[in-house]
């Protein structure tokens, strides 16, 4: 094979692999991304049932009810509205009423958010950024970024 | 006093780093050997000072000096000694200090190494000093671990209980040794660009550093994965979480770098690409530090962070990545391009390896950063999870694994595909048998699992056949083959072992297709079924640890006749932080595990459990250990060892005249 031919093979392969990777990424992006929704957006009926999304906000006080067979029901709110959530399984250690939470699942036709994932955190003062933004948009966010989670924690104690 | 000493040592180290950056660089420009010679002793002093500062912080933590804010926020008098020590880097400030300690260790290693030419070593140390300066400024001005608090409280707030684990002693140091280790190849690449000259000698000098960093990064990621597996109580080993991806990206780029350096060393080709990879790998390490330390991404592994610090790291990030890429664009055309070569050859296969690894890395990069970009542009908040990576990463990695044994068996310059095919036929046939047997045995199970296990078996067998075909000649007795196998270069063993480790890991991951999960409530005395095991819940008790109270369920795992293991699954309550952690009960049965998480206790006395049976799950981490062991074997090879004497006799024209 000539020098030019070899170079063409290398460049051709590189182009094919890169184009393939890009195609895969774009294609996957279309079908697999999951949007984050605040409770107010869900209440405004902008999310169709059966579509997978992440719901984040604060776990409403006195809303956690434990049913049989490890089902848990609670509601997630952002001050303006709240959405009932059903989940089966073990809740993360840092799951508490009044604290920020992010769950992932789909909305049932009855308006209950059926979550299959409740995101765990490693740190009790960590507030997921999306939740902080959702609270800010409802005017529920108090104080500076660093101080607010601590205030929220005190509010629940 | 200790805290002030530490603070002072850091400040002094900053001053010396400025000197280490400017003076030797000037010396290298002016060709002054005295100024150039200054780099090594100054680098050693910087290391000494930073180590002293780190020691001062350790002393403050161990002695529970609550006049230091960092100790107040992260320690408690009742905390066990091990966690008082590991708690030093279990927080933002201390973790950045650990980062820079490791940077200084690598600087000192370069200073002591005699395998580099003086000019290359000088320039590399100057580049290293620039990184040290940036991070020292960051620590001193925005994350000072030695800040005092007055009046000093009587008791600290304790370390986050999730971190009170042996994992904290092992995972961050290993991960940082990997991340920061790639600063060495970065510094060497920048030094080469400054010199405007690069050759096989550069590759020989850079290869051990890349190998060393790669081994540590492999171990660090594997250790982090195992820690998350047993600590989070979910039984998952990889979540495709942004923080995990942040460590995977430099690993993928580093793996590509490792292979392209070999091509450069052996064939004097791929030079510009190797330099670019060295820059990108460390840039991705910096990006990883930024993503983890800034909190811009929502992650299951995230900790509370101060956004101002994120901005600071972002500035460091842009200066280093932007600066090095600009330098690359300016100077790379000066580098004499390497030769072009036959597509069917070892180097051709390594190009394919690099292409696939780089593409896989790019898809992870897109998946990790696209949510950030989209939010900045369109304001929409999205998350990208496992389904995305199943559709992008997996289709790129599987072809890589399929051609891996072929590339390994091809010879340099001109390979013979037919001969390689014949050598691999046995491995391929055996792997196919494994797959078919598994499909027959587990009929109706997941389709991908037997195929994945077959792929892993193919990799392991091909690695073994690589050693076999290099040592065995038809017609010669076995003893001769064994002797020849012992005589093979360690780097040949290293590559076979590391590739076998990849196979083991693939088997472990694929076997998770057969894992089973049971969510159930049980009363003491009753039993739950999981993965063919009968798990009897014996009783629920409580006990008191040094700084926690624990509720423990004891469960007996029964085989077909006699019990095979007893596990304790608990929940620990840490009063100092009013936090609970789950301590999963894990029974290791061969290479498989039964994993029990404790849930809620109900008023009627029953207890919720989540149980998993994870077949062959240990192979995932054993595979990573074997990969790192392969890297270590290569590193032990006389020809690549750090500090190996430079050949006096030029092997080819490409070796620099010293």
Structure description:
The complex is a heterodimer of chains A (157) and B (658). Helices cover 34% and strands 27% of the residues of chain A. Chain A is an alpha+beta fold and 157 residues long. Chain A has 2 domains: 33 residues; 122 residues, Nucleic acid-binding proteins (OB fold (Dihydrolipoamide Acetyltransferase, E2P)). The longest helix of chain A is centred in the N-terminal third of the chain and has 30 residues. The radius of gyration of chain A is 22 Å and the shape is elongated. The N and C termini of chain A lie far apart (77 Å). The C terminus of chain A is likely disordered. By secondary structure, chain B is α+β, with helices and mostly antiparallel strands. Helices cover 62% and strands 11% of the residues of chain B. In chain B, the strands form 2 sheets. In chain B, strands 3-4-5-6-7 form a 5-stranded antiparallel sheet, with no helix packed on it. In chain B, strands 2-10-9-8 form a 4-stranded antiparallel sheet, with no helix packed on it. In chain B, α6 packs across α8, α9 runs antiparallel to α10 and α10 runs antiparallel to α13. The radius of gyration of chain B is 27 Å and the shape is globular. Chains A and B meet through α1, β1 and α3 of A and α13, β1, α14, β2 and β7 of B. β1 of chain A pairs antiparallel with β1 of chain B, so a sheet runs across the interface.
